[in-house]
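Hi R.,

Here's the chain you asked about this morning:
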Amino acid sequence: MGTLNQELHYSVELILKLAKRNAGELLHDMKDGIEHILKSLPELEPEEKG
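And here is the predicted structure, written out as tokens:
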């Protein structure tokens, strides 16, 4: 066991690593979701100017 300060430092680093990994997965999932929504939308016709 290290000192309390070392233990806290280790814990904080671990939390940050997990948070970064989870954020990356979340962004990836959001990207997939947005792409799925865009693909399922009907093709938009360009508006006629007149």
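One quick note: The helical segments are 4-40.

Cheers,
M.
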